[in-house]
Amino acid sequence: MSVECARVGGINLAQGVCDTPVPPVVRQAAQAAIEEGANVYSRAEGVDALRQQLAAKMRRHNGLDYDWQSEIVVTSGATAAFYVAALALLEPGDEVILLEPYYGYHSNTLHAVDAVPRYVALDPPDWRLSLDALEAVVNERTRGIVINTPGNPSGKVFTRAELEAVRDFAVAHDLIVFTDEVYQHFVFDGREHLSPAAIDGMRERCIVLSALSKTFARLFVIPVLAPSTAVSRTPAFSSSPRVR
Ligand SMILES: Cc1ncc(COP(=O)(O)O)c(C=O)c1O
Questions:
Q1: Which residues, at least 6 apart from 75, have a Cβ–Cβ distance to it below 8 Å?
Q2: Which of 60, 94, 95, 244 could connect to 90 by a Cys-Cys bridge, CB 3.0–4.6 Å?
């Protein structure tokens, strides 16, 4: 989509290409790490110090307690995070609800693991979520729903009431909730980001995807996050032959 956008000279509402500078502290730390010889393979799940800092960040900014050793994994961007989570948790033919307008890679990723996106349109101009519309698409093959808040490209920031409604829906249908929160620090007009996993009864079914690529305008080495002890206890996770 970005290639096509550049070809026609359009405004890219698909991929969030950062135009903010890399903060000096990040540049300097990267240079220092290279100088110190930190240039070989690291742990597949991410180096300990980074995962510890991510746990601290989740406590500080998201009000969530995650165990850095068993619940946090570092991947190459949120893109890889969603891919590995989908690969581990979904079986071919499983359906996942995407809310329109959605970020293109969410749909592409689901197709890449042979899952089936089911689309539910949010109502403009304030992108309200209709529970009736959700109920209309859910069926026995539905395994999950993606909540992107703040959302790309809509800018939609889900409220507590909306997330509680999503929680009730997810619990009623035993769904995994993939939350994409890469724009968590991009909130305006007094709005506040609320992590869906921070809603009572949600932590155990949420996979939280986060990233440095937007906040720090860096396009390499970044976090997924994700949790969750309780997701690992769901039948889909523990019995999946594709879990790595
Ligand atoms: C909603 C959303 N999620 C994820 C990504 C990709 O994140 P990353 O570069 O960390 O893979 C983007 C990039 O545009 C995005 O807009």
A1: 81, 84, 222, 223, 224
A2: 94
